[in-house]
Amino acid sequence: MEKEELITKLKKIVLPYIQDQEAFDHLSEETRFITDLKINSANLVDVILDVEDEFDIRIENEEMEQMVSVVAAMNIITAKMGKQ
Amino acid sequence: MTSKEIIALLPFQEPFLFVDELTDISVDGMRGSYTFSSSAFFYQGHFRDHPITPGVILTETMAQIGVVCLGIYIIKKEKGEYPDKSRIALTSHQIDFYHPVMPGEKVMVVSEKVYFRFHKLKCKVAMYNQQDELVCRGTIAGMINPQDDE
User: Fold this and answer.
1) Tell me, what's the ipTM?
2) Of the partner residues B89, B117, B143, the one whose CB lies closest to the CB of residue A49
3) How many domains does chain A have?
4) Which domain holds residue B130?
5) Which of B:71-110 have CB within 8 Å of A?
6) Are A62 and B132 in contact (CB under 8 A)?
């Protein structure tokens, strides 16, 4: 999957949960979910579950803890999809 | 685990404990009851000269029986113990109300687990009165962070 396509899908997933619209409008690979987009920890769980559904993968606890930013999420998603 | 053992682990106490008994206990859902005492503190103000159980209290009752008790039971079952200093937080709820609950009424709460992942427990919860009429129902989610995870 192309990087741009992946980011577009992630943007669609996080949109319902963001608090900081400006950070969302300027979303890049470096954007962090909690620190920048101000997603709360409970909604971050929903983001992860939506990622699992969208990409048909299963995220484990340790991976969830690593998924703090867009690039970290992209790396985990890409690695998981590659294994299938 | 018995009803009494789960209730003993709840972090609530009077006047904000809204669980009397748990009657069906499983990792997939919880069923329990509570009777609202006519002398409960909130009837003095909700409403003036016209006491009705506040919706937020009905929501709290559903959360305590349907989500917190269930969460404690699941963690105890999975990990062998429920750490004393675990902290909990309500994270979201969406509830529709159908019937008022008057002072002294007993209600039944039934919950069904939607998921428990990454410390977050989300449930579908419904409350019924003694006539078996639907009082309210909806979705409630909370986070449980066992102290030993930090």
Assistant:
1) 0.88
2) B117
3) 1
4) 3-149
5) 89, 91-92
6) no
Give the domain CATH number at A24.
Answer: 1.10.1200.10
Q: Encode chain B (150 residues) as per-residue pLDDT tens digits.
A: 999 999 999 999 999 999 999 999 999 999 999 999 999 999 999 999 999 999 999 999 999 999 999 999 999 999 999 988 899 999 999 999 999 999 999 999 999 999 999 999 999 999 999 999 999 999 999 999 865 444
CATH number for the domain including B52? 3.10.129.10
Exposed / middle / buried, residue B75 (Cβ in 10 Å: 0-12, 13-18, 19+): buried
Please give the Cα distance from B64 to A23 (Å, whole number): 36
Q: What angle do CA B11, B91, B106 make, to 5 degrees?
A: 55
Domain that holds residue A22: 3-83
Amino acid at B18: F
DSSP per-residue letters across B36-79: --TT-GGGGTTTTTS----HHHHHHHHIIIIIIHHHHHHHHHHH
* Best residue of B120, B144, B149, B150 to probe chain A, by most A CBs closer than 10 Å: B120
Closest CA to A77 of B123, A67, B104: A67
DSSP string for residues in B29-43: EEEEEEE--TT-GGG
Instruction: Say if B123 is an interface residue toward chain A (CB within 8 Å).
Output: no
Count: domains in chain B: 1
Cite the active site residues of B: 46
pTM listed for this prediction: 0.92
The beta-carbon neighbor of B117 closest among A40, A43, A45 is: A45
